[in-house]
């Protein structure tokens, strides 16, 4: 049986409905115990503020807790007794959590509330689709249409007629939400301006057609 095999690509875009960001508190000072206690108090206030905005326990996940000491540089001058002075040291305690926001319209206000609650580390804002099934279906349908168009072009170029579909397979690894630049800026009153953009999902399918 003579056949034509092509790979079709399809894409589908949609507005994200879930946001993610990392937020935390870094405290520093000359006493380790005081810095640990200060960080603990501020982190408790931050977590309380997040939960007060409707963030569920399951959507807050600790990703980093770091304690380190910063020594003065360069070394201090010689002191009495012929020993180099060490000078004061500074202890740093950093506690961070990943937060999932299931209402992106609240993201700007939530970022504001986090900073007001004591957060001094905020980064890694990203967006996703909670259930990408619909977008994947649209992208898959577009991929099938693209494959048929490619096969018809090849059939016309080679002087043959396209027949029935013999086999179809999805190219694994072709799907995945990608952040697309642009999009619509969401007005969040006096809160942090947030631009959600769109998420694009791409699917590839391999289709084999018979040649009549």
- Percent strand equals 35-45%
- Low-pLDDT segments, ≥5 res: 177-190
Q: Number of helix segments? A: 3
Integer tally of domains:
2
CATH homologous superfamily (4th level) name of the largest domain: Protein of unknown function (DUF541), domain 2
Largest sheet: 4 strands, antiparallel
Radius of gyration: 28 Å
Structural class: alpha+beta
- CATH top level class name of the largest domain: Alpha Beta
Mean pLDDT: 86
Total beta strand runs: 10
Summarize the helix and strand pattern as letters: EEHEEHEHEEEEE
- Tell the overall outline: elongated
Span from first to last CA? 9 Å
Helix content: 25-40%
Per CATH, which architecture of the largest domain?
2-Layer Sandwich
The CATH topology of the largest domain is given as: Alpha-Beta Plaits
